[in-house]
Amino acid sequence: MSRKGGGPGCNSLFLLVFLSVISIIIILAGAIALIIGFGISGKHSISVRTLTSAGNLGQDGILSCTFEPDIKLGDIVIQWLKEGVVGSVHEFRKGKDELADQDEMFRGRTSVFTDQVIVGNASLRLRNVQLADAGTYQCSIATSKGKGQAQLDYKTGAFSVPEVNVDPNGSSVWESLRCAAPRWFPRPTVAWASQLEPGANVTEASNTSFQLDPENVTMMVVSVLYNVTVNNTYSCTIENSIAKATGDIKVTGASLSPVRLPRPCEGVGRGAGPEEGGPGRRDHPEPLRLADLSLRPKDDLSSGTASPPLPRSW
């Protein structure tokens, strides 16, 4: 009598084992999904906002960044990175600076407003602004509430408020006006305007010259306007890709007086810390305001929590 290799009982056992294995796999997959879900549910993306700004060569600049406040200072991590730079720009962890990984080009030049961190101010002070500081920066924040990041485009150049006076080289008192500004880069354009002739091209009656400084970087701008009339107000506007500044002068029959008209800045942020002469309020960076000077970045404001990553992670 021959023996057959398997029967209904064997097949049933095999099917039972197979179904048991499938069930175990499904249960394990569900458990893993729950674990991941619980882990993610405890964190969320926080809002981080940056303000596009420009730096004035040789002076201190502010890269503005704010986030959702967190009173747990020890849980706050601020990390500033620059696209194309291997090391960090600045890091702040557990209430103090962590600069071991700071790139050489930023050594001794950066700081945050420590007393304003818990109220959501992650702005970076950059000392002695250089042309090489221009570029794309990323402000990354981690708190007990979650993480977030935002980028800003930082431009560098030179800009200053022009002064308008009677041209000392003119042959008569009211013949010409002189508009001069000591530091500009890149090379700007100069435009004149007349209050009594708002649509007229007054600039045609002017002559503008540029003089490089000894280091051949910034330049002095001098523009002379001819055919000046009395009882009129003239404006001299100097503008490049970074900034726009205006000086005004009022000419009367008996006197001539410079006029400083307040003009709000566009696209500049600063941390209003004690060093900046900021107000006592410690919530967010105050907008920088300089009479007659307004910066003109390409983009006014960028914000978000999912900006394209730079070649560095937490």
TrEMBL record:
SMART domains: IG (SM00409). The keyword Disulfide bond applies. Residues 260-314 are annotated as: Disordered. The chain crosses the membrane at residues 12-40. Residues 58-153, 170-252 form the Ig-like domain. Pfam families: V-set. GO terms for biological process: adaptive immune response; negative regulation of apoptotic process; negative regulation of T cell proliferation. Residues 278-301 have a biased composition (Basic and acidic residues). Its main location: membrane. GO terms for cellular component: external side of plasma membrane. Gene3D superfamilies: Immunoglobulins. Residues 268-277 have a biased composition (Gly residues). It is found in: Cell membrane. Negatively regulates T-cell-mediated immune response by inhibiting T-cell activation, proliferation, cytokine production and development of cytotoxicity. When expressed on the cell surface of tumor macrophages, plays an important role, together with regulatory T-cells (Treg), in the suppression of tumor-associated antigen-specific T-cell immunity. Involved in promoting epithelial cell transformation. This is V-set domain containing T cell activation inhibitor 1. It comes from Ornithorhynchus anatinus. The gene is VTCN1.
